[in-house]
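name: query_chain
kind: protein
chains: 1
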Amino acid sequence: MMKINKKFLIWIFATATLLVGIYFGYKYWSGKELRTLTNNVSLIDSGNYDQAEKNLQSMIASDPANARPYILLAALLTEKLAQSHNVSIDSKAIIALLDSVDKIAPNSESKRLRATVALLLNQNFNAHKYALESVAIDDNNAKAWAVLGLVAEKQNNFESAEKYYAASYKRDKSNVEALLGQARALWQLGKTTTAKAKAEEAIKVADKRLEKAKAYYTAGHFYSFEKDYAKAIPDLSKSVELSPENYAALGELANSLNLAYKFHIEGFVSTSTLAQALEHSVAAVKINPAYSYGYYFASQSLVMQGRNNEAKNYLTLALKYATQTKASKTFIARINADLANLNKKSK
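structure:
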């Protein structure tokens, strides 16, 4: 079975934390306040975080006794925390917002967001604790059940993860996060056919840009692992089209293009395939300069084009960042082997 991509799990959190805004809003809000919320959710969904943050800060300042803007602002900052490559967002600011919510009206969502922050900070025990407290307050909080699934998944407890994700989806049939979580857990349990079906279902259910991007990524990731590049590449391309900021999807697409060319898959045998792969790899490391796989995939494109000196430069960078980020020993050994092979050829 394939190894879980921890960075991918972090990415999954990015949209899930914000969907609480819509859930919380339509369930409890009305009138002008709901219209204001909806405008801010639209700003967030389009990536205009700064304006949404200013608007929510203004709402809090004008009505500090209203818990709702605190919740959405905490969700926004949690998404930024999830998307950050160096966890530069101050998690204390999020906790302070949630403390304000608990003083006004303790609720399931504040506990769920605390669990999310804890999980992003690799505090699995606290994440599990807060998520349980969340469902104890509101058993129908689908997002909290999904957090329990994520905790179990990070701990490689895939049977529990699948059950928690199933509980989440049972409570919210529009919960793409739960479907994708089920897909990953089922894949790890060896139920690959059902896992792919869940990923395909998620593509159909998703109606938001980032959700659909993640669904396409998951399906593409499965097909790529099975070496079915003819199916993987279209799905990964859709994911990148919908979410060009996702370096993991860019890297996976580059790798699939490289391998499709290497194994002479129909439709991917021209040198333009390698040019596209290189373009995606370079884009990935521009987004996240510490993404060692991006440098490695770029080197593979270059080697197949006979550009060995350039490939060596990218392999050197891949080794640097793989070492810094404590990548697997197998990956580091592969980089060293490729470098040694190119050095031998250059003599």
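note: The radius of gyration is 21 Å.
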